[in-house]
Amino acid sequence: MMTMGGLAAKAEEGVEVLHWWTSGGEAAALDVLKKDLESKGISWTDMPVAGGGGTEAMTVLRARVTAGNAPTAVQMLGFDILDWAKEGALGNLDEVAAAEGWDKVIPTALQQFSKYDGHWIAAPVNVHSTNWVWINKAALDAAGGKEPANWDELVALLDKFKEQGLTPVAHGGQAWQDATIFDAVVLSFGNDFYKKAFIDLDAETLGGAQMKEAFDRMAKLRSYVDDNFSGRDWNLASAMVIEGKAGLQFMGDWAKGEFIKAGKKPGADFVCMRFPGTQGSVTFNSDQFAMFKVADDKVPAQLKMASAIESPVFQSAFNVVKGSAPARTDVPDTDFDDCGKKAIKDLAEANTNGSLYGSMAHGHANPASVKNAIYDVVTRHFNGELTSEEAVTELAAAVEAAK
Ligand code: BGC
Prior knowledge:
alpha/beta, D-Maltodextrin-Binding Protein, domain 2, 2 domains, five-stranded mixed β-sheet, four-stranded mixed β-sheet, binds beta-D-glucopyranose, Probable sugar-binding periplasmic protein, transport, signal
């Protein structure tokens, strides 16, 4: 910016940010961050890469870094952050983290992915979780109004949606979306089962009888999606529930961002609940901004961005719009709606009770190699290419080969 009288301009501070927040609700949340930085004199260069779950964004990132042109900050999930850190590609946020006491307020479950070798490398923005169901309230009322408490009640509800002439399950056939449902289905068989399968990668659990049952349930759910599900983006599936064309969607709480953006209110227009059988447990994923190594003159803006993200006021404002819980434990839930309050409470309780697990589908249980191996089997089974018997055998083998 030139100053009056033509004096030499001070170089403008700016950040270039790569992310996959391109749906209506996501863009509204991103705008909170952009405006916050702009109010601090930091300009924003946007690098959006559409594709829920970030698969495409990670491909574009690889190309950028290979070309020696890393963005300042990149939206990233769990193990991907650690993989980049291992490659030595990330910067260092220790100075701002120490000055602001991040160690004390950011849950350790998140710090596991924000730190590498004892150094802060990423700034967590939020905590999402995947074991949610988003139900159209009018459709639920017409079906008797009772939230399904277990698998049988869920199936009965889906049958009633069908009788109402609705698409029972709004879903988009993309590998990450299939895997998001699988997170919840596996968790509904209990914490131990989820842990043994996805955290411990125990071959017997992955290839066992209960896993076959989990795949059978996936096949049952598949029977409730519409004919046009293939390739549909997740937010278009949310729109089907919002518009009353579908009964419900199984999706992480970023879906709430779509309902809110459409002016819908929890309790009145839609109902949020944990996937039947998973109450008390949480499969989480946290969006973090991994900070890349950039030229020295770009570091101050990078540190300011990290600091802005961790401000409690920003954490509240952003996550209210995004549908997630704050990434700090000291942010009041005052401004959050009932689903947001529940997300914050569930998270704290699950953390205390030892029933908080990283989401397999969203990169918080395993590195990308294992995650992609699981995606592949889950998707082929969901699309009818594998029986449940074949799926368990393939799952155990694919994970073993990938780990
Ligand atoms: C991210 C969310 C995002 C969702 C859909 C998840 O992996 O954590 O922030 O809204 O993908 O794109």
